[in-house]
Specification:
Length: about 60
């Protein structure tokens, strides 16, 4: 979805997967693969910038 720039669908799926992992007490099963994907998709910053704005705590 990120490759196709379908960021809305990718964001919804990522949020669902993160919430499912949290609910099951397995945050790492989401966080580590998500970070690996971010590194692979470095040129496609749009999605990850949006993720950071909308889903990470502000400091």
């Amino acid at each position: 979805m990120i490759d196709k720039k379908d960021y809305d669908a990718a964001m919804k799926l990522a949020i669902d997967l993160r919430n499912l992992a949290k609910r099951n007490g397995a945050d790492g099963t989401f966080a580590k693969p998500f970070e690996e994907m971010r590194k692979r998709q470095l040129p496609r910053r749009g999605f990850f910038d949006r993720w950071k704005r909308e889903n990470e705590p502000r400091q």
